[in-house]
Amino acid sequence: MIRLSGRMRSALIIGGQGIRARKLRTALSMVSIFLGVLAVVVVQAGAEIVRQAALADLELQLGKDGTVQMYFPPTEKGAAAVLETLRGRGDALAQMSTSAIIGEPNTQPVNPGGAPFNDSAQGPAWATEGGGAVSMACDDQGFCRPIDVGPDTGAPRGAAIQLELRVLTGDVRRFIPYQVEAGRWLDFTGSPSMSPRIVVNREAAEGLARHRVPAELHVEGTTANPTPQIVGVVDDGNGQPTAYVWSEDLFNWLPGPAEQAEWVRGSMQVMLAPTAGEVERVLRARLVSAGVADNSVQTHVINVRKNIAEQLKLLRLVFLGLAALVLLIGVAGILNVGLATVGERVEEFALRRAVGTPRTLLAGIVLAETLLTGLFTAALAIGLSAAALRIGVTLLHRPEPFLQNIVFPWQAAVAGVVAGLVAGLLGGLIPAVRAARIPIATVMRA
Amino acid sequence: MTLIELDGITKTLKGQQKPRTILDGVDLTVESGQSVAILGRSGSGKSTLLSVIGLFDRADGGRYLLEGRDITRLPERRAAALRSASFGFVFQRFFLLKHLTAAQNVAMALVNGQGWLPRRRRRAKVMAALEQVQIAHLAKQRPAKLSGGEQQRVAIARALVRDPRVLLADEPTGALDTETGNLVIDALLAATERGCGLILVTHDRDHAAKMARVVRLTDGVLAPVLPEPAAPTVPALPVVHS
Question: Where is the ABC transporter domain (chain B) (predicted)?
């Protein structure tokens, strides 16, 4: 417990008595600084919520701060070296992406190219130079983009969905904060399963819920089509249907290490924890010995927070400046009320000096009153903002899913308290100096 | 034991016109438990003298000893501490804070930044002080609910609550009727029985006569007031009935 000095306790007690005795004036002072404090709280809360939303979005796309991403030219030997080095590691992983189809074999999936299921008006496909085909897919909002639908095999449409399959050598959630929404996440510690366990993202889950498809997983290069086990649903921020699988589960269906390496080399992404410096060195050495040029192995450290903070800095400063201006106008109000109050309390202050109250305590009493007023105002503004946010989240939560996890940011509460205290300090400073200068002989002349 | 010793205290007011000497070499000694009344015309400097004694104001010259310690040139911070520890003040106007109860008004002298008393001990001291002036039953009343005499007794309790060495009273009965004034003077004199010195500035000769010593401030100098000679007694004449 904080032990306050006798002088500070005295200031708080007398200040509290003063506030109780002049409720109307206190209320007027609160009104004068309320808008300013509220503006600071709202700006800070808004900036923090935007930052959190942007951070969550970018972390899902890029990874958590400090994550090291490693890039190197795709070679078969290099990929094999990476798979061998990272097998069974928790602090580093390799992620490979490929296209997969769940459902009836040898048919055209309901979403060719792994397009989102909400996309509509898929236009006719046109051929590309590589012999593939591209179609335009548009979502609910009318945004259209080209989707690679692969070569036109002339297969009939069947009960199958196409998705992006991400093959992981370890737990990617250490690096990218995917939220498990149903079921469970992949287990990377037990024995591999002949029936690959997969976790699908929201979009894939929606497709599977909408279309009844047989449990048959077709991945290019595998010896047969295994039966997948869908163990969970995850929010990965990806609008395209995606599934995640442990590499050990899938590699059972690839003929041998050479085929595995050939299969993964084109799409390998390596992520390392900030503490995995040793792994990074070993990996680099093995890549070099596998024939990859040392200077072509590049690393990049994710620094999302700093980037977002820099992007939002100017905007936040502009709005905080405006809020500070409103607060300053409020300070003028509290100053005015404070001066009038001290003028009325000349005899009280002179009497307090007569009974031994030091000048500093007299100033402290006035400051305690204005600071407490500032704190009450801050509490009111914070409470109101938090309540408004809660109501807003409840009302808007359906159309804006990102609001679901938003809570009132503590930074806004701190900013509100600081704004209240600063307003109280600025508004109370001159009245406090006046109170301390009241001549003691006032009581003798009265 | 000598409580207060003033030796040649001078004070000149430097107003907008020419400087005016208010105290011109005041000598005064007050013993422990002694009561002293100061008489004088309005504007004679009685209150100024009390201000100097109570460390509200500083003397221009002379020497001021409190219990043998020279406090003539005390810095404000130490003067405030000494006011709190050694002096109790009672004014003509009671200066009670109307938003506080009687007990809170008395406690005001304890919550003054000069040391800290826990709430329980503070309350005990406040009730003891109110008991001393026989108004403990009014502790929770606000000043507006109290009579003039009761208010002044609350003010006396406020002056006594820190067990001062000296009680300074500046015309404490000026706003009261004779009977209530007598009660207030009795309450002040009761404090002297516990060894507290009392300096009373008054216009009232009857109240002054109750003090152990009476002095008059004239032209900035204190002089003792001699007791008035008793009026000659006239023998009663026999009643003659026709």
Answer: 4-238
Domain span at A173: 68-110+157-301
A120 located within any domain: no
Helix A359-396 / helix A23-62 crossing angle, nearest 10 deg: 50
**Partner residue opposite B115 with nearest CB, options A6, A348, A354:** A6
Same domain, A310 and A290: no
Q: Are A72 and A262 in contact (CB under 8 A)?
A: no
Question: What is the tens place of the pLDDT at every residue in A207-230?
Answer: 999 888 888 898 877 778 889 999
Which residues fall within 8 angstroms of residue A304, CB to CB, at 6 or more apart?
A: A55, A58, A59, A62, A63, A64, A65
The model's pLDDT over A361-414, given as tens digits with 9 standing for 90+, comes to 999 999 999 999 999 999 999 999 999 988 888 887 565 556 667 788 899 999
* Whether residue A344 is found in the same domain as residue A359: yes
Chain B residues within 8 A of A357 when measuring between CB atoms: 80, 84, 112-114
Examine the domain organization and report whether A291 and A331 are in the same domain.
no
The tally of domains found in chain B comes to 1
Please report the ipTM that was assigned to this predicted complex: 0.86
Cβ of B80 within 8 Å of Cβ of A14? The answer is: no
Would you say residue B146 lies in a domain? yes
In angstroms, the first-to-last Cα distance of chain A is 44
Chain B residues with CB under 8 Å of a chain A CB are 47, 50-51, 54, 56-57, 76-77, 80-85, 89, 91, 93, 95, 97, 99-100, 104, 108-109, 111-116, 158, 170
**Rounded to the nearest 5°, which phi and psi values hold at B52?**
-65, -45
Other CB atoms within 10 A of residue B163 CB: 15
In a domain, B133, yes or no: yes
Reduce the DSSP state of residue B93 to 3 states and report it. coil
In a domain, A148, yes or no: no
Residues of B in contact with A443 (CB under 8 A): 89, 91, 95
Q: Which of B80, B104, B116 sits opposite A356 (nearest CB)?
A: B80
Å from B21 to nearest chain A CA?
A: 18
Q: What are the residues facing B91 on neighbouring strands? A: none
